[in-house]
Design brief:
This protein is mainly alpha-helical. About 55% of the residues lie in helices and about 0% in strands. Helix 2 packs across helix 3.
Length: about 60
């Protein structure tokens, strides 16, 4: 399912959508990792940004 860009509330900001190129790019930059590293982390822990941030640990 694609993001509803008209509904960018709190819950939307807490999740990483790998379906949207701009989100993959932006989250990768935020965490200082490659797009593949971000995708791998989401595969391991799910799409909650806080969980992915913890998973990436020192690579931020």
């Amino acid at each position: 399912m694609t993001d509803d860009k008209t509904n960018a509330g709190g819950a939307d900001r807490q999740r990483i959508s790998l379906e949207e190129d701009y989100e993959v790019r932006d989250w990768s930059q935020k965490f200082g990792v490659s797009e593949q590293a971000l995708r791998d982390a989401v595969a391991r822990v799910g799409n909650m940004a806080a969980d992915v941030q913890r998973e990436l640990g020192g690579r931020r």
